[in-house]
Known about the structure:
By secondary structure, the protein is of the alpha/beta class. It folds into two domains: about 5-70 and about 410-475, Urease, subunit C, domain 1 (Roll); about 70-400, Alpha-Beta Barrel (TIM Barrel), CATH 3.20.20.140. Helices cover about 35% and strands about 20% of the residues. The chain has helices at about 20-25, 90-105, 110-125, 140-155, 180-190, 195-200, 220-230, 255-260, 300-310, 315-320, 330-335, 355-365, 390-395, 395-400, 430-435, 445-460; strands spanning about 5-10, 25-35, 40-45, 60-70, 70-75, 130-135, 155-160, 160-165, 205-210, 240-245, 290-295, 310-315, 340, 420-425, 465-470, 470-475. Strands 5, 6, 7, 8, 9, 10, 11, 12 and 13 form a nine-stranded parallel beta sheet that branches. Strand 11 (about 290-295), helix 9 and strand 12 (about 310-315) form a beta-alpha-beta unit. Helix 5 packs parallel to helix 7 and helix 12 (about 355-365) packs across helix 16. The longest helix has 18 residues, at about 110-125. The two termini are about 30 Å apart. The model has no long low-confidence stretch (mean pLDDT about 95). Bound molecules: zinc ion. Zinc ion binds near residues 75, 77, 242, 293 and 345. Zinc ion binds near residues 75, 77, 293, 345 and 348.
Amino acid sequence: MATIHRGHVFHIAGSPxxxxxxxxxxxxxxxxxxxxxAGIILWCGDWKDxxxxxxxVKVVDHHGAFILPGFIDTHMHFPQVWCGDxxxxxxxxxxxxxxxxxxxxxxxxxxxxxxxxxxWIDRLVTAGTTNALVFGSAFPHAQDxxxxxARNRGIRLVSGTGIQTVGPxxxxxxxxxxxxxxxxxxxxxxxxxxxxxxxxxxxxxxxAVVPRFSLSVTRTTLAALGEVYDHYxxxxxxxxxxxxxxxxxxxxxxxxxxxxxxxxxxLDTYDGRFMPGSQVGGKSFLGPRSVMAxxxxxxxxxxxxxxxxxxxxxxxxxxxxxLGSGTMPWKxxxxxxxxxxxxxxxxxxxxxxxxxxxxxxxxxxISERTPVGIDPYPVDDExxxxxxxxxxxxxTLAGARALDLEDRTxxxxxxxxxxxxxIDPTKWEMFDKTLKGRHVPEDPIKARDECxxxxxxxAREKALTGTYVRGRKLETSTGASRIGA
Length: 485
Ligand SMILES: [Zn+2]
């Protein structure tokens, strides 16, 4: 028997570019999402137009609440589950050395790692994140706990063990030999990735190849991992790493990568061109299942190469603010044709709730000063006021695209799997009163857009009352649909 979820529906229909999101924004103030027993969307529309064949199905009335597609977080760090707002006394590399590497080393303890896995999935459920691309722990037992917990709870997850074969003394517990790195990546894929195409179509969890970043590995490691990735690429294995995050001159991440590898661009190291002078030395990791985190300081050539290979960017504005990394140039990146999804980068970021990342995204780009005259943006618009539909797109459908799952999730198109969240303003008085008390424009399109904008910018986790994957409501480890509920 099917189920109708009744509430205020918003989603980005079809398969638009981000610049077309406003034209594809769909809103039903009294809407219905009809989901069958297998969790597939049968129909989405206005409550009064529900087709007669669904007239006598079970109705879950989320009266006064919003129904949005499940949020997709395309960059976060499992072994940093308890690292939010760690004080490193500097920027990226100081923070890694003084806070992050020591904390991640604690996952060597199985009990600690198991508790972290339970907490991690609890946090995703509580934040309405139905799918996440997750940098994994260096320790295989910790990855097993994470995948087991994701499978048991029925949440989508892509993860892979974080590979480091070189690094400072503070990372010594996380560093493995090149042989061990390759063995562990292969073993994780064979154990947790759905290699069979039929199984893959039903599966919610997948594996990624995850070198921490170019400075954590060597040319030999990149060449060996490239062979592994190439072997499993057609089986839908993912790739993710960091790119062009910190641009501090001389000792920062980007200059250090270029000095170490003697390459023209940082991206070359992930594109098989990691030999001096950007000569080819191995297989490329780029492609439609590859996600580069940050991409704040890219050259035109790097952006063009990502667009050409359909590699996506995980944009992490909250983390970039925290670590002083700057801001991914929105107009240039969009104009280059690269898909931009949102990422928390937790624990570099300190937010789990995707709308809060979209909130930061709006603020940094309206404050961003970029060259004028970049297509498709108006020549006289120096800063950028992102449309609420563009924000919703970035937190939902763009994430599905980044994970090559747009045919299965990301919006409420008929035939997709029903991943959605319920946001109930009455669970947070300030949010509720603002929605009720604000001026509502007479123009229905303006009223629609302003409502969505307020929902994205003002909502907090405490207003989230349900996280559904494939039509099934997820629970936290304590059995609550949300922590504290
Ligand atoms: Zn990161």
